[in-house]
Amino acid sequence: MQDPVDLTQNLIRCASVTPDEGGAIALLDRLLSEAGFTTTRVDRAGISNLFARFGTGKTIGFNGHTDVVPPGDLEEWADDPFAAVIRDDILFGRGAVDMKSGVAAFVAAAIDVVRDTPPDGSIVITITGDEEGDATDGTTAILDWMRAAGETMDVCLVGEPTCPAEMGDMMKIGRRGSMTAYLTATGVQGHSAYPHRAKNPLPVLVDALHRLAGRALDEGTAHFDPSTLAITTVDTGNPANNVIPGEARATVNIRFNDAHTSADLINWIKAECDQASGDSGVTLALTFKVSGESFITEPGPFSDSIARAVEAETGRMPELSTSGGTSDARFIKDHCPVVEFGLVGKTMHQTDEHVPVAQIHQLKAIYKRVILDFFK
Questions:
Q1: Distance of CA 280 to the CA centre of its chain
Q2: Would you say 235 and 250 are in contact if contact means Cβ atoms under 8 Å apart?
């Protein structure tokens, strides 16, 4: 039996702060190769990624990441964040929740299956080192390579922490889209005592923000809460009280459901900003960053299988949710149906990030049930 706790400890001891690999990808490459998987490093632009396949035929896939966020002030940690200390049956360390335990649990479950009951089909494991970073050369690089190599998955399980409070209380069958709009209003600087000689960009910018924030984007959809728009910053860089600034900037972040596409929202923002600038003489320039579109994997056999496995091991039937931020599932959804299930996420990215040892074993048991059920 492959011990998922020991593997999690070994992965945590690889200080793989994004984008550094820290030895974690190499460790998994060796372990899976020794277990009979065919492995391929899919590194791109300095990012380390791994693709591993066992068998042929119908394929269940797994996606996870070994990169972690920085630990922050080491003095605030009770232990070295990369020491993987177990105390009172709780494992501490950066990545313990997000998501080295999830990777270890699935890898351990898959190794047990291929050693004990080799499947009539295939298991694919994809691991990236670029989920916590820009995410431009991680899972996207693996999927690009798979497309070129003719490699496919029929379904994919992402091991992100999905449970908000108790082990087994939630799984993700979709995610909201995320996009950011950057507004730059440019006028003419001048003395505040002579406003007619200036073109103040702030009233135009404030009007644009009022138009955007004043609209309810929707009331929610069948699987999603209402979309949200947040003004996250307004900046002029102006320390003087008697100077009209020549430029002002603002940033708006939108989390949107499947009632919208980013293209539709961009067109709406442009139209509102055109109305706000009008004939003021102030120009309002826009740039956009789209982190991902909203998506939904309609409930069906794969999500049902995961839910049954979770209930069998935890006694809880997980809620099917689309809450939270983005994950690499946003890339995989264009390749095959994708569902996310993992640990309780309460301490991810926090000081003294930790997970009960029992939950790591529990997660391995859930993943093993899912794999075996897929090949029935």
A1: 41
A2: yes
Beta-carbon count within 10 A of 211 CB? 16
* Set 21, 29, 67, 207: catalytic member: 67
For 109-119, give one letter per residue: b (16+ CB within 10 A) or e. bbbbbbeeeeb
Report which of 174, 165, 140 is spatially closest to residue 324, judged by C-alpha positions: 174
Find residue 62's DSSP bridge partners. Answer: 125, 157
**Domain 177-292 CATH (choose: 1.10.10.10, 3.30.70.360, 3.30.930.10, 3.40.50.2000):** 3.30.70.360
**Residue 131 among the catalytic residues:** yes
Q: What is the DSSP letter of 225?
A: P
Distances (CA, A) of 322 to 37, 225, 317, 339: 33, 8, 16, 10
Phi-psi group of 95: left, alpha or beta (phi > 0 → left; psi -120 to 50 → alpha; rest → beta)? left
Chain mean pLDDT for the chain: 97
For residue 132, CA distances in Å to 18, 48, 83, 327 come to 6, 13, 21, 9
- Closest by CA to 155, choosing from 298, 37, 49, 291, is 298
CA distance 48 to 129: 5
Q: Where are the beta strands (DSSP E) in 274-341?
A: 283-292, 295-296, 319-321, 338-340
67 included as an active-site residue: yes
The whole-angstrom separation of Cα 213 and Cα 34 is 55
Helix pair 100-116, 24-34: axis angle to 10 deg: 10
- Active site residue: 98, 130, 131, 313, which one? 131
What proportion of the chain, given as a percentage, has pLDDT over 90? 98
Question: Distance between CA 114 and CA 254 in Å, rounded?
Answer: 44
Sequence spans of domains, the chain = 4-175+294-374, 177-292
Q: Give the orientation angle of helix 357-374 with respect to helix 4-12, to 10 degrees.
A: 110
pLDDT in tens, 121-137: 999 999 999 999 989 99
Homologous superfamily assigned to 4-175+294-374 = Zn peptidases (3.40.630.10)
* Lookup: tokens for 127: 């691991």
In tens, the pLDDT along 355-369 reads 999 999 999 999 999
